[in-house]
């Protein structure tokens, strides 16, 4: 027997947005596969749904007009479902289907008959009616105390009976109707929970989706005519047709009647009844299930496919109110391979979005799952929808953008903050938490979301900055962190440096400063100068108030110079043999020159320091064996630096200076660590405590004169050289002058680490070149170097 001809049809009426059009595509594929062609396939191409089946365009239209049998979709547990009152449109609709003999509606009649066999329905109706009577008295303020108690008891019975009705419906409903129940409500350990897709258990306000489905079934299929056909062709192929006023609910925000949407004060919702009908049929592929996911603490709660908790990230105007009032987010998958209904059932049944070995809990988690390829193969993208409260109390399925499935290098690093972030999320979400912590959390979520969507070092850097901002808030909230038992965030691996590195001068400077520490371990790292952490425990616990913390609300230059002063004092008191200014990263001299000139973004440097200090430089990559040195593109003697800086910086180096003869010249570098941990011998330049106070006072010339004298005593001969009479001219440095702002930045720049090879540039700028080096080499050879 020859294989039937298969046709590929584009359905322009079915697009990824709005939600109604997406669900309509699912409905068409499901109905064709279940009622006409089991081998039917569907896929997305250029934002249009494509159908492959034995039906050509005309046959597809004929199928829906003449053969399609509607699925029983109604909600007997809802007040407007048509079973809990004696009159009204919903009751009339149910009665019409109960009495109609059309074979196409046999499934609906069977389901209605099954509801009639539920003994609880009569009791349910009576208690609801009594509760409504008492509520009217309560609003009219004519209710007695006894009736108040009765209202409380009756309301409790109504709630319990409703749960029992849902359970009974599940046991007695025909198989064809069970998917609707699972799509509306899912039963978990704590009762049933509504799906955000279908409002509050199949009803949104006074709009009962099931009853509205039946109303549209009757209107379209009781006596199909040319108008019915024209509307069907519009639903399938987007051909022009007049719409009619009807309720659409949350599924198509653009078609909802709203102020200024048409002539007059407010317009009506305009829809195509076929759109509503096919959309409801499509919801059945998104039936929920009580799922237990490995690694989730609250996995016993009901879950729905690709549905997660909402986060205010990726919105055009993120707001905490949207996040708090949202019914959740729905991430609808897109695929480009022809796929069967069976495969889609499995896809939606699993609803897989795994991150760090667990199921995604919220929108930020879902974005991580997509960026880490923790979703099913074959999915090329997701449409993100948020069920947000708009137009008063109504909810709308608001499109929140497209998210392509692309692996983002670095997303796996977020596992390192999962535990801390979950604790912070719970604490920030508490009603008693200060609003600034909620803002800090939303900033983290937004940064994670944007990195997962766009990738790149600049976006990953924003995650680090957001984490640093949250840490900064905790550092200034001792009572809050103690109440919530929140520890400092610490221990990020050095891979975060690579992922966040964008090659900018601001990043290089912040990275170098954030890594400042005492190589001997006698005083704390730079982080201990920013917040009260116990550095002996690798900054994983808070400490008592410490005088080492000097960071405050001042500007960046002031804070950095204060830190340098404090570290010099603490190092001297602790008996450090070398200055506690070592760092695993260095900034280029070009970057430092730009910093002194005020050409960089101080606010960004400050934020980066707070983020980069969270990285534990001891958690190194194998490739990071030595100090990361910045690439100096400047040759010796051509550094665009103030000579004052070059002179002063030679007094603020973490290791001795070592001269090396190379070819016909001598180069200077920092001493290296030898086997056994010993630092090689070299020229030691003792610090001069008077310099930093002088710089803060704007007396740059005096500070430079003292520095020149110190260098000369240490064995380096700074320019200018002595007079023929032998008199030294170090006093010439006293003529250096700077304004107070530049002097403060000069002091701050002395904290910024430089690379070993940059030292030679500094020496060449301020010393007598080969003669100074020759003298030092001679001293070293004679064993006279300090």
Protein architecture, described:
This protein has about 775 residues and is an alpha+beta fold. Among the domains are: about 300-405, no CATH class; about 645-740 and about 750-780, no CATH class. The chain has 28 helices and 17 strands. The strands form 7 sheets. The protein has a 4-stranded antiparallel sheet. Strands 1-3-2 form a 3-stranded antiparallel sheet, covered by helices on one side. α3 (about 90-100) crosses α4, α13 (about 365-370) packs parallel to α15 (about 435-455) and α23 crosses α27 (about 760-765). The protein is elongated and about 115 Å long. The chain starts with 6 loop residues before the first strand and ends in a 5-residue tail after the last helix. The model is unreliable at about 260-265, about 290-300 and about 620-640 (pLDDT under 50).
Contiguous low-pLDDT stretches (5 residues minimum) are 259-267, 290-302, 621-639
Mean pLDDT rating: 85
Helix content: 40-55%
Portion in beta strands? 5-15%
- Number-wise, the strands total 17
Computed CA radius of gyration, to the nearest angstrom? 36 Å
- Which strand order spans the largest sheet, edge to edge or round the barrel? 10-11-14-15
Number of helices: 28
- Report, as a whole number of angstroms, the end-to-end distance: 99 Å
Question: From the helix content, strand content and strand pairing, which structural class follows?
Answer: alpha+beta
Shape: elongated
Summarize the main sheet: 4 strands, antiparallel
